[in-house]
Write a structure and sequence with these properties.
The protein is mainly alpha-helical. It has helices spanning 9-14, 18-29, 34-54, 59-75, 83-97, 105-114. The longest helix has 21 residues, at 34-54. One of its GO terms (molecular function) is cyclin-dependent protein serine/threonine kinase regulator activity.
Length: 115
């Protein structure tokens, strides 16, 4: 079931070079410096890590959530959707994609409030 990577949707849609990233980030970089932009992503990566640890998720689920978060903002502005809402959403989606099991909404909301 090996497919051709060069024809895959991953290769066509998600391998972005430096110019693509800069073009997509222009709106955010007009307000933030590159350093501030990177610090925001470090903060939210740490937030996703903490949420995952509090929910007792596997590291693979946490890593998938972080990738989802970064890929979303590779194509969208930070003003598009509040990152504080997207981070737990990525954790929830990653737990389903990685077949970890469904996290109850109330448990996820309580954990987010405590963090």
């Amino acid at each position: 079931m090996a497919g051709n990577f060069w024809e895959s949707s991953h290769h066509q849609q998600w391998l972005l070079d430096r110019q693509d990233l800069i073009r997509e980030r222009q709106h955010d970089l007009s307000v933030l410096t590159e350093e501030e932009y990177q610090k925001i992503f470090i903060f939210f990566s740490n937030l996703i890590q903490i949420l995952g640890e509090q929910l007792k998720l596997r590291q693979q689920v946490i890593a998938t959530a972080t990738v989802f978060f970064k890929r979303f903002y590779a194509r969208n502005s930070l003003k598009c959707i509040d990152p504080l809402l997207l981070a737990p959403t990525c954790v929830f989606l990653a737990s389903k994609v990685e077949e970890f099991g469904v996290i109850s909404n109330s448990r996820l909301i309580t954990t987010c409030q405590n963090v």
